[in-house]
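Q: Convert this sequence to structure tokens.
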Amino acid sequence: MSSVRHDFYTLISTAVAPGTVIHSDHTDALPARPFIMLGLELGELGSGQRAPVRATGAGRVSFHRPVSIRLQYFGSGGFDALDTLQLVLQNQAMQDLSEQLNITALRPVRLQVLSVPLEGGGQEPRAVLDLESGHTAFIEDDVGLIDTVEVGMNARAGEWVPKIFRAP
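A:
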């Protein structure tokens, strides 16, 4: 089972290949510019949808949740690069990959250039693309099987007659 973090990283890094993508909680030295920083914010998990239980007693349960994505471009030409990226994410190959990764359609929300303060003073322009999407995660749930059911019926007043049914 893959994770929402891995799935979105796979999608974005494929879309910008051979460019570099890092996670927003990246703690190692930053790569050479240009690169994109991927940040995710997960919404509330929706109620689970159960698939039919298999003969083993296990069944798949799927959960959907909204995801907000923030892509920050470090380097020059970021606005144009992210503008192109949001178009690339709409092409058929990226739509097919999204489906394989259980990612719903990416909806661009905002593309802007922010002025970001630098540690040593001064400011740096940084292009930022915000997207909205959704992700479906799956788990296997072992709910067991009922192989015998006893049902009683009142054949005559005051008499209890058990009937036993067995699963095929």
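The mean pLDDT is 87.
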